[in-house]
Amino acid sequence: MTRPQMDFWFEFASTYSYLSVMRLPARAAEAGITVRWRPFLLGPIFAAQGWDTSPFKIYAAKGNYMWRDMERRCAARGLTFKRSNTMPQHSVLAARTAQLALEHPQGIAFCQNVYLMQFAEGLNIADRSVIAACLDAAKLPPDLIDQAQADANKHRLRDTTEEAMRRGIFGAPSFTVEDELFWGDDQLDTALDWAQRHAA
Amino acid sequence: MTRPQMDFWFEFASTYSYLSVMRLPARAAEAGITVRWRPFLLGPIFAAQGWDTSPFKIYAAKGNYMWRDMERRCAARGLTFKRSNTMPQHSVLAARTAQLALEHPQGIAFCQNVYLMQFAEGLNIADRSVIAACLDAAKLPPDLIDQAQADANKHRLRDTTEEAMRRGIFGAPSFTVEDELFWGDDQLDTALDWAQRHAA
């Protein structure tokens, strides 16, 4: 029997992705699920439905709710969380670098570092020095940042984002098990459970 | 010590409200929380943010996801669920009648009947005979439908909807414990837990 698999779709600018990025590795290990980490960009997906920024900026009530909800959830999990005025941050540099980082075992630590820098430390992840510090803390080579600017790597991020759209993904975090889509950190355990029960 | 309290905000046209309406009574009783059931209308709230119908109609990816997600959730809970082409249904008659029904102990059964008619049976809750059947099955007087058309009762629904908006409610189901807002059936237990821990 093959080990059950799941794809994890996350966007570095997404607050709720922070929650899943921090807890998924331990939960997936417990559940015995192999997870493919797939950074993508929500910007083009939002643009396709007529939004020029995050729905949390466009719809004030949703935005106000999200900040308070994130505060409560992070407090309950012992995660530091700072509200930020610059939301959403530009996440392209982080996503491109993550694609290469995730080819190494320390890639997950890199991703977690980026979320901590942004949401616990309040730093700007569009800043090259912040991404460099995240690589360094994960003991990954600093030149991944430059390698990440190669055309093939840029195209890969575009392809992943197009695949997300084709799969009907409209927010982050999302989880897919074959054609089944689960949206939101609240659905993380449901998705793992689905992967277990529907393993080939 | 006063018994902990929570307000439960639901919209009769809302698929996810069905999930909470069916399970909240048992969960709240277990948790020892007194719940005030507050039917309201999402239409005016959506209109205020520029939507002329449900976001599940406006944003196809969200809509497709919702139907599949509801199917999975209902299957997991043993609830019958039918996809419908007429979404969202007109819920004003149901909401106005519910306000009066909820003054009786059988009010919750009435509300559950309305959701079952709509989402398990595929019937139209804007139809007077459907609402009459829901009253009858809950052993409530049939003339509540006519009483529900009184101006004072109409104004009450408008006032509740305005209060929902002032509280920052943007979707259903929602739960409030004093000024804390929780959105979505996924947050039902979190809201009950909050009510317990923050009881006066």
- For the record, the CATH class of chain A is Alpha Beta
**Count the helices of chain A. How many?**
10
- String of helices and strands of chain A: EHEHHHHHHHHEEH
What distance lies between the first and last C-alpha atoms of chain A, to the nearest angstrom? 7 Å
Radius of gyration of chain A: 16 Å
- Count up the domains of chain A: 1
Enumerate the strands of the largest sheet of chain A in spatial order, edge to edge or round the barrel: 2-1-3-4
Family (chains A, B): Belongs to the GST superfamily. NadH family.
Domain DSBA-like thioredoxin (chains A, B): 6-191
Catalytic activity (chains A, B): 2-hydroxychromene-2-carboxylate = (3E)-4-(2-hydroxyphenyl)-2-oxobut-3-enoate
EC number (chains A, B): 5.99.1.4
Key terms:
homodimer, alpha+beta, Glutaredoxin, 4-stranded mixed beta sheet, 4 strands
Describe this structure in words.
The structure is a homodimer of 200-residue chains. Chain A has 200 residues and is α+β, with helices and mostly antiparallel strands. Chain A has one domain (5-197): Glutaredoxin. In chain A, 55% of the residues lie in helices and 10% in strands. The first copy, chain A, has a four-stranded mixed β-sheet, sandwiched between helices. In chain A, strand 3 and strand 4 form a beta hairpin. The A-B interface holds A 49, 59, 61-62, 64-65, 68-69, 72, 165, 168-170, 180-184, 186-187, 190 and B 49, 59, 61-62, 64-65, 68-69, 72, 168-170, 180-184, 186-187, 190.
